[in-house]
Amino acid sequence: MEFGLFSRMFLRVRTVNDRTFLLILVILLSGYWLLFHWPCLNYYWNNDDLHLIRKFTSNELSQVFTSTWDVDRIETPGFRPFTTWFNHFRYMFLGESPANHRLFLLILMSSLLWFVGWIGFKFGLNRGQIALALLILVSTKAFSGDIIWVADGIHVFQNLLIVIAIVAMMKFIKNKSVYFGLLSLFLVWMALWAREDSLVAFLIMPIIFVIYYCKCNNTNLSLGWLTLKSTKADIIKYSTYFILFFSIALLSLVLRKIYVPETSTSTMLPSSSLTGIINHIKMSMWIVGGSPSKEFLSLRPPNAQTGSLLINLLTYSWGMILGIYLLYYLITIRKFDTYARQISTCFICMGLACTPGFVVERSNLVFLPTLFFSFIVALTTFNMWDRASIISLNNHALSIKWSDKSYNIMHLSIILICIFAISGSMLRATIQRIDMHPLSINQISRNRIFLVDIKANIPDERVNYLIYQWDIIGIARKTTREELLNNVKMGLYNSDWSGVKPFIPQVTYLAP
Q1: CA torsion angle for 298, 142, 72, 494 (degrees, to 10)?
Q2: Is 199 within 8 Å of 158 (Cβ atoms)?
Q3: Which whole-number Å values give the CA distances from 19 to 15, 16, 65, 113, 122, in the listed order?
Q4: What's the CA gap between 132 and 487, in Å, rounded?
């Protein structure tokens, strides 16, 4: 059997162990991310970064345990005390430089990728599948705006806590060590008190627990529980773990209801909650740049990117590939072999991870569903062409003929997926460079809201720097701060996003 380039690079590499392979892969992916996003590293503080990333007083740090997380009471209310603490300590450690904060978040992202790859190995994925899945994941929105927009870095931190909690839980199952069980509970508690949407971990982790337990015992689901019942010590440990596990979620919900009553679900739940979940699913599948339209089941690109031939081509081509992958899954599900079980598990976890869409629809809440979708694409790409070379129609039923010559087709498919991922990353990075530029119309308008309209608690040096910046480009001709800021109102929200091209920095300035 003859293998091509990808097989030699990923599937048959014997000179390094899996952990070293992951380290090399993560370094390469971090460099890949920097290649497209490095111009944004030194962008100045923007939007809610201005008042969230700073030094907080001891009184402010204590009050977040008995009230909403934002001491200025500007942001969406929530019980997130560890968000404020995370923002405080990273500012104390990294200082005033936005570039330092973004590089720190890049390190967290790299750590997150390594642990995700470790989990993939433990569930039997090969190196090629893990490499492709992580490339897709790095190319998505989760690793673009959540690093460039410094305050959104809390999502990277939160998801890192969840993933390490899953790793500790798997160690707890494998080694039956109480230490790893307690570590898992501690980390998932920190994640939940950092962001309420971490509640999805309490839906996903029990599924991963059951599957990994059965894998460790070399049995299926039904026999796995029979094995569990025969071990009294294990059942005591696992029962205690899950009692504490769900108690953490219950306690957090109770404290949230008591201390932040304005977050009541009855007041936040939109009428189109099902549409919110569907849109979260769509956003998690969108690796071709930007995010899909919010219209129900629409494949049209977002309005901000309408008119770009490249984006339209990528959009509809990606939709066709998703249709082919779904058809292949429906064909193979009837056998329910290892591939079908893996993909079905990923689909279930992906759907559960989209449940925050019931309450709020935001693109920065789709990391976990995007993670599972990345594994779905990687597993399907390799499995589809692992042995299948021809899908023909025989007697009105789809059948699969097997051939070793299909590896060339598999490599072509991998290259195609990589093209979609890289193209999406280029386009998304270009949009980030435009939208987040300190002197773009969008950015000035956002910053003006915090400096003038709502008067957030912003350090004086940031206020003075922004005013100095705006004065240089002649936004206003008055010298007083009030007149200067009021003149920023000219021409707001007039950015033209049509025809955005990668690698061409474009900045729209306000007319003086």
Answers
A1: -50
A2: no
A3: 12, 8, 39, 12, 12
A4: 49
CA distances, 282 to each of 105, 171, 275, 459 (Å): 26, 33, 10, 39
- What is d(CA 128, CA 19) in angstroms, rounded to the nearest whole number? 14
394-409, pLDDT tens digit by residue? Answer: 433 444 444 444 556 6
Nearest to 80 by CA among 150, 155, 181: 155
The Cα angle at residue 344 between residues 339 and 347, in degrees rounded to 5: 130
**Pairwise pLDDT comparison (248 vs 319), residue with the higher score:** 248
Do residues 389 and 403 lie in contact, with contact meaning Cβ atoms separated by under 8 Å?
Answer: yes
Show the beta-strand stretches assigned E in 62-164.
none
> Is the pLDDT higher at 375 or at 362?
375
Is the dihedral angle over the CA atoms 369, 374, 377, 379 positive or is it negative?
Answer: negative
pLDDT band, very low/low/confident/very high, at 505 (cuts 50, 70, 90): very low
Residues 6+ apart with CB under 8 A from 79: 68, 69, 193, 196, 252, 255, 256, 259, 260, 263
pTM for the model: 0.84
Backbone angles phi, psi at 390, to 5 degrees: -140, 130
Question: In the chain, what is the straight-line distance between the N-terminal and C-terminal CA atoms, in Å?
Answer: 68
Q: Which of 125, 208, 130 is nearest to 162 (CA)?
A: 208
- Sort 449 into a burial class: Cβ within 10 Å, 0-12 / 13-18 / 19+: middle
Q: Measured between alpha carbons, how far is 447 from 437 in angstroms, rounded to an integer? A: 12
Nearest-angstrom CA–CA distance, 3 and 490 = 61
Dig out the tokens for 80 from the structure.
């997130």
pLDDT band at 346 (very low <50, low <70, confident <90, very high): very high
pLDDT in tens, 28-77: 999 999 888 888 888 889 888 999 999 999 999 999 999 999 998 888 89
CB contact set of 455 (below 8 Å; sequence gap of 6+): none
Distance between CA atoms of residues 410 and 430, nearest Å: 30
